Amino acid sequence: MSFWKKKTEKWVESPLHNNWYQSSSYFLSSFALITSVDEEGVTSIGPYQLSFPFGVIERREWIVISRRGSNTSKNLLRNKKCALNFVEYDKKHIPNIVDLGYPGQAPEEKMKDCTFELEDTPTKSFVNDPERPKVIKEAFQVFECELNDNPDDFHYAGTEFTEYLLLKINHVHLRERWRNNLDKGNDMEIPNMPISFGFRNANQFWFAKHKKAFWLPTPENKGAKHDAVMYIANRLDEEVTFTENACKQLTGIPKVFVKTALKGIIKEAKSQGITTIDKAFIEEVNSKRQ
Question: What pTM does this model have?
Answer without folding.
Answer: 0.79
